[in-house]
Amino acid sequence: MITDQLILNAKVYNSYYKRFEPANVAVKDGRFLYVGTLGAETFTAKDTIQAEGQYMVPGLIDIHLHIESTMITPETFSYGILRHGVTTIVPEPHEMANVFGVEGVHEMIRASRDCQVDMFYAIPSSVPATPLETTGGSIEIEDIDELMETERMICLGEVMNYVEVIRDPDGKSNRILQHVRSRYPGLVIEGHTPKLLDLDLHRLIYAGIDSDHTHQSIEGLKARIAAGMFIEIQEKSMTPDVVDYLVRHAVSEHFCFVTDDVMTDSMVKTGHLDHLVRKAIAMGMAPEDAVYAATFTPARRMKMNDRGVIAPNKTADYLLLSDLDSFAIEAVYKRGAQVYDRKQPLPQPETVPRFPEHFYRSVKLSSLTADDFTVRTGLPDGRYSSRVMMVNSISTFTEEKHAEAGVKNGLLQWQESGYGLVATFERYGKNGNRAYGLIGGDTIKRGAIATTYSHDNHNLLVVGHDPEDMAVAANAVIAGQGGFCVVLDGKVIASLALPVGGILTEAPLEETAERVLGLRTAMESLGYNHYNPIMSISTHSLPVSPALKITDHGLIDVGTGRVVPLLFPLGEE
Predict the structure, then answer these.
(1) Which residue spans within 38-134 are E strands per DSSP?
(2) Residue 61 in 3-state DSSP?
(3) Which of 38, 122, 402, 456 could form a disulfide with 157 if both were Cys (CB 3.0 to 4.6 A apart)?
């Protein structure tokens, strides 16, 4: 029998029994034809691979991520993750949608069409994430219908405004859920349900949201699985107690691994979804179970029944591993064709502009001065209680603290408060909104940082301790049509231009990774203490991530979903 490819003497992962078996594998027309003991005596192959006992596992599948979080284009992203064994992803482009609306979604899909990695897109459901922010675009019900009619959309992306789902039956989130459930009853609906328990959690599930990828605790994990939720475990949820629970209980059908947001330098140095598989094994999970959670269960969650398995008629995406415990990838195959060989260099193809011209002109904000970081309160002089956003080194969640602050001549004396200033400026030319807050905890202790990479509205966010430094950082970002800038004593010490929508670069992977590492190092040198300082600061403006955040509308109490004042009378808690 003539086949395209024959893999001999491999230890093949059987997903249905979750075990490795010695076997030969035949591939024809990009699909697996045969898995068993028959070999060269039966099949005549154009390409014969001597596996020599290597482990053969399905290509990894990541069903929850945002390409924009890596700040590179889909083309560069595909190039970057192939070497890490990721062959299929489900990106949700709600970052670009927040800048350009449905056009941003179409353009991200268009930029993905020639990529080697299969990209099945999720429909952004929460653009903007809440009504409490200004964005460049929005996704409405009519946009969802258009995307379903014109593109291949695999699911409704994470419904982020869980407060609105629970408390406002007529709100946008519930209208979208009701529309999707009635018009597209088979469409998978993804969720975002941090910390919810008991009735609130069950009301969210009742509304049609049956997955969660946010930071898990044992209590929350058990409650979600018991209520029928599918759990998407990202690295920050891989605490010893959570992994131990997953190992010791028969819950393998109820979770998978996802990356959500990965920095470019981390991808290059540590890996992508393969890193989570490797970490799970190192933490005590059986390799067979870790592979299952990165291949079989994510494919089933997204109803991708053509992949995630090495079996007849399934897509021939697979990896060859020289060592299972360290998940050492030797080669990656896509539809039976080799796309990565550890022993061969894999140069990145030259990158060219892929987006419409106006995508490079999205920051409509004039230069700022130090005076723009003077906070005019409109209050009488005196001492007040102030809300302070406290950064947490182990989470992107913040805490709300109350501290005393003074007002003199109507101005907040923030530089005498012992805290830094966080400010945000609407950058789409819509209303000129700006807002201010105090910030403390594990953030910088001097200098300034400015960025338009600020989830999910991507307005200009500035954090600092010196108004002059803050202006320098902000103006560098404005001049570059978006990006990241770190400043100390009036000098730029690290920067990254993000001219595509203010959130992406078309620079090569290695160059971007080097600059991102420079940003991380510079932020840490100013006192930032966090496992991912870039993601930490960029979520200061995410009003669906607990507890106190800031948008151009003001400080946001995430738990109640409302704008709250920075200052209030002493004694009034």
Answers:
(1) 44-50, 55-58, 60-65, 86-91, 118-119, 121-123
(2) strand
(3) 122
What is the pTM for the complete model shown?
0.95
* 368/452 same-domain check: yes
Sign of CA dihedral 552, 555, 556, 562: negative
**CB 5 within 8 Å of CB 27:** yes
Asked, for residue 336, whether it belongs to a domain, the answer is no
Same domain as 504, residue 389? yes
Contact 451, 475 (CB under 8 A): no
Measured CA to CA, the distance from residue 550 to residue 391 in angstroms comes to 13
Report which of 392, 436, 438 is spatially closest to residue 536, judged by C-alpha positions: 392
Closest CA to 13 of 364, 314, 226, 246: 314
* DSSP letter (8 states) at residue 504: B
Cis omega (within 30 of 0) for bond into 565: no
Q: Is residue 35 part of a domain?
A: no
Domain that holds residue 211: 59-308
**What's the burial of 170, exposed, middle or buried (CB within 10 Å: 0-12/13-18/19+)?**
exposed
Q: What is the pLDDT of residues 217-272, one digit of tens each?
A: 999 999 999 999 999 999 999 999 999 999 999 999 999 999 999 999 999 999 99
User: What is the domain count for the chain?
Assistant: 2
Residues 373 and 241 in one domain: no
* pLDDT tens digits along 323-375: 999 999 999 999 999 999 999 988 998 888 889 999 999 999 999 999 999 99
